[in-house]
Amino acid sequence: MKGIVFTEFLDLVEAKFGLEMVDTIISQSELESEGIYTAVGTYKFSEMLQLLQHLSTNTNIEIDDLLLVYAEHFFDVLKQSYPGLLATYKDPIDMLASIENHIHVEVRKIYPDAELPTFEVLDKTDNSLVMVYKSSRAMHHFGLGLMNKTFEHFDSTATIELEKMKEDGTEVKFIINRN
Ligand code: HEM
After folding, report:
1. Whole-complex ipTM
2. Yes or no: is domain 66-178 CATH 3.30.1490.190?
3. What are the GO MF terms of this UniProt record (predicted)?
4. Which of 22, 138, 142, 177 has a CB 3.0–4.6 Å from the CB of 169, allowing a cystine?
């Protein structure tokens, strides 16, 4: 997992819960990196999982809810870091349908070692999109947060339903309807 995911996560934890919480979750985890991340580095996903688990225990907030809020913050980071990628799109449904064949393809060019999910489009109309998320990281709520923010970016909203195709969340169907 790319360092930018860790640095932005820890910044958000500091902003929402304070520096003490950052120190607590780092010291409760067993981290090869020792909790020192650079944006361009690459670190084990298991480090993120430990940080999330400890944050969840210490705050009593479910991991999925933490991922949802984190994704909303991360979207703003992506928007600032890659304005050109977003500027290609005029419509949120077109943009979300293009993650697999365009957006993440570009990401892979910037970070060849990025660990990205796959999104398979099953059905698309002007106002709806059905796609299947697959990733061993089961970060579907991170995807949900990014999707919500994508609609917001285009001054729009949507109703998004998640249907787990595998109990462990490694395969999830997203049913997206523009409001
Ligand atoms: C992960 C870039 C848009 C879904 C990531 C990562 C980067 C990235 C750098 C981390 C990879 C790693 O740590 O190795 C971008 C950029 C975008 C964009 C530059 C737009 C300009 C989106 C959108 C979605 C999405 C709109 C909506 C569903 C995800 C998910 C992950 C991810 C779910 C977590 C990894 C996983 O589940 O396996 N993306 N992304 N991305 N992205 Fe994107």
Report:
1. 0.94
2. no
3. heme binding
4. 138
Tell me the one-letter amino acid at 80. Answer: Q
* Residue with CA nearest ligand 1 atom 33: 143
* Nearest C-alpha neighbor of 4 from the set 32, 40, 35: 40
Distance, CA 45 to ligand 1 centroid (Å)? 14
In the reported structure, the alpha carbon of residue 179 is separated from the centroid of ligand 1 by a whole-number distance in angstroms of 24
42: left (phi over 0), alpha (psi -120 to 50) or beta: beta
